[in-house]
Amino acid sequence: MEKYNPEEIEIKWQKKWEEYRLYEAKYIPEKKKFYILEMFPYTSAQIHMGHVRNYTIGDVVARYKVMNNYNILHPIGYDAFGLPAENAAIKQNIHPKEWTYKNIETIRRQLKRLGISYCWEREVITCDDEYYRWNQFFFIQFFKKGLVYKKKAPANWCPSCQTVLANEQVINGRCWRCGEIVENKNLEQWFIKITEYAERLLDFNKIKNWPERVITMQRNWIGKSEGCEIYFYIPELNENLSVFTTRVDTLMGVTYIVLSPGHPLVNKLIEISPKKQKIEFFLDKVKKISLTVSDILNLEKEGVETDIFAIHPITQQKIPIWIGNYVLMEYGTGAVMAVPAHDQRDFEFAQKYNLPIKIVIKNPEWKEIPEKIEKAYENPGIMINSWIFDGLDSEKGKKEVCKYLEKINKGKKAIYYKLKDWCISRQRYWGTPIPIIYCPKCGVVPEDEKNLPIKLPEEVKITGKGESPLKYVNEFLECKCPVCKGDAKRETDTMDTFVDSSWYFLRYASKDIKDKPFDKDEVNYWMPVDQYIGGIEHAILHLLYSRFFIKVLYDLGFVDFEEPFENLLCQGMVIKDGAKMSKSKGNVVDPEDMIKKYGTDTLRLFILFAAPPEVDLEWSEKGVEGCWRFLNRVWRLHNEITNYKEQNQKNDEKLKFMINKLIKGVTEDIEKEFQFNTCIAKMMEFINYLGKEINNRNFSKDILIDCWKKFIKILYPFTPHICEEMWEDLNGSNFLFNENWPSYQEIETIEEKINIGVQINGKIKGNIEISPDLNEEQIYELIKNHEKFKKFLEGKKIINKIYIKNKIINLVLED
RNA sequence: GCCGGGAUGGCGGAAAGGAAGACGCAACGGACUUAAAAUCCGUUGGGAGCUUGCUCCCGUGAGGGUUCGAAUCCCUCUCCCGGCACCA
Fold this sequence. Notes:
With 815 residues, this protein is an alpha+beta fold. The protein is 37% helix and 20% strand. It is built from 25 helices and 34 strands. The chain is flat and about 105 Å long. It starts with 5 loop residues before the first helix and ends with a strand.
């Protein structure tokens, strides 16, 4: 064949694959399936190296699995709703829809040029009304199940993006997208009760293999705490104040109580407090701070005394009530019992305001109980100054005190979660309209399912300011109430795009479906996803919402499985000069440029070779060149092999051994942890061997061709185009996609002589050539008489011999 | 602060308690060539010694331990990366 010309052969094969619809997934219930999924791309202008890495890894898995006789589903689609489309609309004066579909065309072209084995027949575009109508459908099902509600809530408001953000989209008090400081704003918004599923989301038993850190991150995010709710009676209000604590064993050490500034009792307390003005002044200050600075992390603890008291449930003592800036309204009951001796935060507060500190847990390291402590003692210990509980271990005390409180009706066991309900409202245009109607007579009613989809109006003015642009589109806003048929108005909020991505993988698994969100049987066949691949940045958001969504669909009878993704691989970033590729750093390498220069196969090979999938990959064009050289070497070797003239068959056995070892190594490395980098290294070793040996012409031609065919097959998942071309040249009649992965046998060695290491007292002293069937004693005899090792053994007694077959022998001598 | 993950040549990285540094990059030397590119061959962890191709010593962040044998297991510490962070 001619010189290796990647562009020509890659485009040739990409056309053929498309022509034959080679990658079209078929629903064959009796065949074992494998669902390989990569996180679909957001429809920004074009794909970057991160995508290339993600999709290449997926493609290797897909091609490998299909060659191992799995029925494969390997789909692709586009995460097409979201803010940037609107930003582009404002900036470039282009309609979000037009912008999005233009980008989809670019991305689709780029993906095809990468030669990924996607089933193009099942593309999903989330901004297509045939897709998002089912978001609306599910919203209505959730609504009917009581899982959706509306409430006025202090929302995270990004003044730059002019929109509400979910808690997960706020990172250290800043907007996840633009980095602006997030403010609070009270808005009526739609929530989904993910908190009802907190306990089930903590159960990871039905997940097979996820990175441990992702599970940990989700666990922390859900943040389960077990403890006790305690009621402190406030005589002046004739009301009980409920606090939550995980340290009920320290109850006797409570010296004051702190309410969050947002606590509902605060307003009542102001009215009866002698310190009314001081409190109002303090609340004003707190409000201002929380409005301007969300960076509460470094905020100094401050508070104000109310001069109102609560009654301790056990001692009946009067406990002063404070209002403090360090108590969160969003967690627990919004009020805490302060135990300064055993909680560092309370300790700092108590020091500042000179509040009493009462020690009730004895640190085992203390010889006697100190008069003063420097900081709170937060670890377990023995209970003291605690009435009938004295002497108990604090862990046991937790149970005992709680039991006692339950008995006297002053408290109960309680569990709290950090997880908050999922706010899905967005005051935006480019998203799924929430299918709710406000009727003056009937109130808040869901849209009739028959009227779905509620389509986004095309004519719209996007300003990027304040409320949803849909508020100003009358044809959208005005509607009829599905109950009374009277005039009514639509909800103008649209849905968070994480709703779209919570079930897109079900839509893939159900081809050409019109009247339902998906076909239950086909979805139950393909799902759960056998291997999901994507970035670690979705460890909480997308993956938790999807798990939740699927559990709800399971409860509603839509699907028969409870977890969407059995195995998860989070690939590392592609970095250059020590930083993630980004426009602002000016270190972006465009995949298309690389493809033009070297071809897709070389780019794929480099990305797979440079690092194992889950660690960050340092970009190196020199490394790309190395891969380019390798493929050229393969190509030249192919030509040498097809023109090969045999002289003798001396090395046939060795060649068979080498290819067998290679197949075994590559298969095991893929099966183990998708260690594609070492797979490629092994193939390089094989090519190095063959390249050196072929000129000696010690192989018979048919053995050589047979081995070469096997080699092409195992290289195929990594660099499919060049392999198809060589395969065709060898008169392969089939696409490699339809060939079987070669098998291998367990062979230890075929060599007549092998080298093993020789250790004396565990230190390597050299090596010795032996025949592999020798035993420990026989090898020892050789060493004893060997010029090199003799000297170590003379006059010494051997107390131990350890022989690891074909590797090393260790002789242990007496001192 | 808490929870994860990590530290191996000049660089990316190999090594499932058994010869550390596979494979690739870079570097150096050589062949081919009028020359260059391409290609091919060789050397390449550090140090010391001499007889110059061999011998010895050291070496996987630091220190200790387990073991015949540790990059790998255990303990202590340092540094780096990631996540969470006033969650009661």
